[in-house]
Structures are given as C-alpha cells and as structure tokens.
C-alpha cells in the first residue's frame, strides 16, 4: 500500500487567491519529490498554475480544476521531452435543463436592484455562474449589489425559488455577488469515483483542505473519503498549518 496525496489550494497551499509563499514553495517541492500528489481546486487550471508556479506543477501527477469538473493528467514519458504535456482526461459539460435560462432572465427582470449591468450568466466548466448585478459590473456596482443583497437577502431567496423548481441542480451562494449553479454531485467529491475508485482499494488516499466542514467546498470530498477505510482527511486553517503537517505522519 502506498499513499496518494490530494491538496486543496486556496487556504491550504496558499492564502486565498494568492501565489504560494516562496519558502514554502521550496519546501513543498522537495517534500513532493518521491510522492504521488494531486491538486483539487475550485479554481481554473490557469489560475492554479499562476498560484503554484511551474516547478510544483511539473511534479504533480494531475490537477482537478473547477471543483473536479475537469481533470488534467500529466503524460509520463520514458524519455521526457523538454516541456511537460498534459491531457484532459474528462470534462463535464453543464447541460441547462429546459427553461433555466429563461427563469434566470425573469429573475433579473423581477429584481428591484437599481443598477443591473448586463451579461447575467456565464457558462464555466461544469457549471453556470449567475448574478443579478451582471458581469459587466465594476467594483462600485459589485459593492452596491453586495450591500443590497446583505439588506434584502435576495440571493438566498433566489436559491430557494430555483431549488424547488430544479431538484437535480445545486445552487450555491458564491463570492460576493453571484450564485453558482451545477448538477448535484458536481463538486470535489466526484473525483473519488471518477479517478480513485480502483486506487483507493489498495492505497491510502489522503486529502488536506481548509473547508472540510459543512457547508465548505471541501466538505463533500472529505465526507466521502471519511467513509472509506483507506480515506484520510486533514483539516488546516492556513498554509502554515500544512507546512507543519508535512513534517508529521503520514506525510513525513
Ligand atoms: Mg480552500
């Protein structure tokens, strides 16, 4: 039995949305030398490269981006080429149920928020991001909406309406102004059945994340691993916690 290590990025290897700290990057790089390491993040592949840097990325076995909705596998060569190659192993397409976009437009029309900027939904890998203020909003409009929502609780109300109508979808209030819409189960937990189903029978799969408690975005994955004999979960609050963790069993 060997160990397979999975790491969240924001709040686990880096401060949220920041680049990895230089000293820790070196430590992590030498730690991962002889390990099988995967990254499991809500961010896009491009953002993860930007946060972790190429040295670390060139040593990971694979990257689950966008909440595990897309998986990039490193192609191994007997004679490695000068550059690293990646292949997309799977990618979930979000298929909107009939009527969803019409309902979203109606919700925008019905909202009494005073400064709608247009472009109210955007398809991403495996999900749709929706906002009443619209994606053309700058900082001012976003702040206006964030305050409006804090006062009138509009997003929570919209989520309740949509949840009733679309029981197969999940709606999550994300960021300061938007709502994330995805198929139920299209969260980080999907990687267990999609990729580690065989491996977890004979290997220990160890996950480190900062949002493993409900309703955090690591919760579904942590819960799934905790139910497995060979699954193990470590909760950290900061990358400094992870730094200390790497010096202890079963990491050291
Ligand atoms: Mg995190």
List the helices and strands and how they pair.
Elements: E1 3-7, H1 22-32, E2 36-40, H2 45-57, E3 62-65, E4 70-74, E5 86-91, H3 100-110, E6 121-124, E7 127-131, H4 139-152, H5 154-165, E8 169-174, E9 178-183, H6 190-195, H7 199-202, E10 204-209, H8 219-226, E11 231-235, H9 239-245
Parallel strand pairs: 1-2, 1-10, 2-3, 10-11
Antiparallel strand pairs: 3-4, 4-5, 6-7, 7-9, 8-9
Account of the 3D structure:
The mean pLDDT is 93. The protein has helices at residues 22-32, 45-57, 100-110, 139-152, 154-165, 190-195, 199-202, 219-226, 239-245; strands spanning 3-7, 36-40, 62-65, 70-74, 86-91, 121-124, 127-131, 169-174, 178-183, 204-209, 231-235. Helix content is 34%, strand content 23%. It has a seven-stranded mixed sheet. A four-stranded antiparallel sheet has the order 6-7-9-8. The chain contains nine helices and eleven strands. It is of the alpha/beta class and 252 residues long. Strand 8 (169-174) and strand 9 form a beta hairpin. It is elongated and about 55 Å long. It has two domains: 2-92 and 186-245, Rossmann fold (3-Layer(aba) Sandwich); 100-183, 2-Layer Sandwich (Hypothetical Protein, Haloacid Dehalogenase-like Hydrolase, Chain: A, domain 2).
């Amino acid at each position: 039995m060997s160990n397979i290590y999975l790491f969240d990025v924001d709040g686990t290897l880096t401060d949220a949305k920041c680049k990895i700290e230089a000293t820790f990057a070196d430590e992590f790089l030498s730690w991962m030398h002889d390990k099988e390491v995967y990254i499991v993040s809500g961010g896009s592949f491009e953002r993860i490269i930007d946060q972790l840097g190429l040295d670390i990325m060139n040593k990971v076995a694979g990257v689950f981006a966008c909440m595990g909705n897309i998986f990039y596998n490193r192609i191994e060569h007997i004679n490695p080429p000068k550059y690293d190659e990646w292949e997309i192993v799977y990618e979930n397409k979000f298929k909107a149920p009939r009527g969803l976009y019409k309902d979203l437009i109606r919700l925008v029309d019905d909202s009494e928020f005073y400064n709608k900027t247009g472009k109210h939904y955007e398809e991403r890998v495996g999900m749709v991001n929706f906002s009443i203020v619209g994606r053309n909003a700058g900082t001012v409009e976003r702040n206006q909406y964030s305050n409006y929502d804090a006062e009138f609780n509009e997003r929570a109300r919209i989520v309740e309406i949509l949840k009733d109508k679309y029981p197969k979808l999940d709606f999550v209030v994300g960021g300061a102004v938007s709502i994330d819409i995805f198929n139920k189960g299209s969260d980080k937990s999907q990687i267990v059945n999609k990729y580690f189903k065989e491996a977890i029978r004979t290997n220990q799969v160890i996950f480190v994340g900062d949002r493993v408690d409900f309703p955090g975005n690591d919760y579904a994955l942590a819960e799934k691993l905790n139910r497995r004999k060979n699954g193990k979960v470590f909760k950290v609050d900061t990358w400094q916690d992870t730094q200390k963790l790497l010096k202890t069993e079963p990491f050291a």
